[in-house]
Amino acid sequence: MNLQWKGVMPAVTTKFTKDDQLDLNTFEVNIKAQLQAGVHGIILGGTLGEASTLTDDEKRILIEKTVEIVKGKVPVVINIAEQSTKSAIQAAQNAKKYGAHGLMLLPPMRYKADDRETTVYFKRIAESTDMPIMIYNNPIDYGIEVTLDMFEELKSFPNIQAVKESTRDITNVTRIRNRFGDRYKILCGVDTLALESIAMGADGWVAGLVCAFPKETVAIYELVKAGRIGEAIEIYRWFMPLLELDIHKKLVQNIKLAEVATGIGTEFVREPRLPLAGEERKRVLQIIEKGVKSRPTLPNFS
Q1: Residue 65: what pLDDT?
Q2: Which end of the chain has fewer surrounding CB within 10 Å, N or C?
Q3: For strand 160-165 and strand 133-137, is the pairing parallel, antiparallel, or unpaired?
Q4: Could you tell me if 30 and 12 are in contact, meaning their C-beta atoms sit under 8 angstroms apart?
Q5: Rounded to 5, what percent of the chain is helix, strand, coil?
Q6: Residue 300 has what DSSP assignment?
Q7: What pLDDT is recorded for position 120?
Q8: Model pLDDT for residues 39-57, shown as the tens digit of each residue
Q9: Handedness of CA 284, 287, 293, 295 (dihedral sign)
């Protein structure tokens, strides 16, 4: 599959049963809802996918199941978040073997690598595979920034093709375009900056609340790309209180609770995460319930 880094790519949650097994039935319900809404790819095993808690075998099952569900309609991308270069290379090899079409690649985990170490890490992985790669640049949550100078070093690797831009600095979209033209595809990785990023030239949106609200997410993207900014803004303003649930340390619990409200998920998480409780749960539920009750009628954008 020729992977096009564009459009809405949900960073899907991993569904678990009450007894902490993979819930592939609910997972399939959600993936089909994403496809019906018109998403452009599926990303597995990211932060929202509780990547750090998944076993290698669970990652295999998720890749194979997703490939089976999508039936070639959209690409399947797996996140790689490893502590060593050796493990990351093995993960990339496994991803291809299991049928994934691309990789989303975080800097090394735990050890705070410097710029040279981080760049070499990316190079080693790119050299080990022919799979297309999107670099996940999220210094806020992961402590390492992939700078423009580092992207300059990486541009000679043809399979490093895109960046998930999560620095929270929207001007980076313009900086990347000014320096590299169309060499790198840019996908916004922060829900609350998505419309602005797409309007400034980002190619796509790695989305979180799409897990619960796929049609609204796709509508915003398609309307902005069609130049129908006013209509997109109306939906975006409705969406913003919900999108803010994504920029929180308990984004997984928040978004899974939203999936329950829209009927395409459960709220089971893997410990040490726990479902929301008390006043925190009440506050998040109020936001979700208000959003569901006032869900907008979407314009025709197809």
Answers
A1: 98
A2: C
A3: parallel
A4: yes
A5: 50, 15, 40
A6: P
A7: 98
A8: 999 999 999 999 999 999 9
A9: negative
Q: What is the CATH number of the domain that holds 241?
A: 3.20.20.70
Q: How far is CA 153 from CA 20, 22, 174, 203, in A?
A: 42, 39, 19, 22
Residue 4's closest CA among 182, 138, 125, 146? 182
pTM as predicted = 0.97
Query: Please, where are the H alpha helices in 22-84?
Result: 24-37, 56-70
Rounded CA-CA distance 137/188 in Å is 10
Structural domains in the chain (count): 1
Residue 302 lies in a domain: no
Residues 6+ apart with CB under 8 A from 13: 30, 48, 49, 50, 211, 252, 255, 256, 259, 265
Which residues does the annotation mark as catalytic? 136, 164
At position 31, the amino acid (one-letter code) is I
Residues 6+ apart with CB under 8 A from 278: none
| Residue ranges making up the domain that contains 257 | 7-293
Residue 1 lies in a domain: no
Instruction: Extract long-range pairs of 95-100: CB within 8 Å, 24+ residues apart.
Output: 95/63, 95/131, 96/129, 96/131, 98/59, 98/60, 98/63, 98/64, 98/67, 99/63, 99/64, 99/67, 100/44, 100/63, 100/67, 100/76, 100/131
Which SS3 state, helix, strand or coil, does residue 12 take?
coil
DSSP letters along 94-119, please?
HHHHHT--EEEEPPPSSS---HHHHH
- Within-domain flag for 24: yes
What is the Cα Rg of the chain in Å? 18
Q: How long, in residues, is the chain?
A: 302
Amino acid identity for residue 14 in this structure: T
